[in-house]
Amino acid sequence: MVRPKTEMRKIEKLAARQVCFSKRRRGLFKKAQELSTLCDADIALIVFSATGKLFQYSPSSINQVLERRGLLQSKSVAEPQETSAEMQTAHRRCAILRKELAEKTSVLRQLKGEDLQGLDLKDLNKLEAILESGLTAVVKTKGERMLKEISDLKTKEAQLAEENARLKQQLVIMDTCVGEMRVQDHWDDHHSLELTISSLSSRDALHNHNFSSLDTLLKLGLPTIK
Prior knowledge:
SRF-like; two-stranded antiparallel ribbon; elongated
């Protein structure tokens, strides 16, 4: 009895599909190893899973196998070509930069009034326009700087005037306080002097009274004791 042929189709369940992939991949690599050992075959086997993961097998090296078969250029051949292309690009850039530097240097010398003999009328007019434009920019920048300095000086002047007024006000307040203190001291001294004079007057009056009483007693005489 003939066994019915099983139809090959995609496994729908993800877990079952991953298990099947792992088993079949191991079986494939085992067959490749047997083929290489038994038949001395050059084998380079590359497998990517559905998720993009790489699996590879080769008895020696996949790159070596591909190089031997002319399917991959050796790095020793590719690198000099890449280096040569980079060097050519660098040389071109250097040449462009050298040319630009020479042109800018020549224009700078001409702006300084040098090397003007080889210029025609058109070049001289162009150079004159550049100088006029530059001079206009210089004059404008100079004017802006001067205006800024004037504004800064005015601001400082206003600040100094305000500070001067504040100091004058403080001096007036201090003079007023000193005057009041002097008046108070003068009043205290005058009051103290008056008290002293009054005390002295009282003491003199008492002293005179005592002398007057003594004179009276002397004139009347002491009372006779019987």
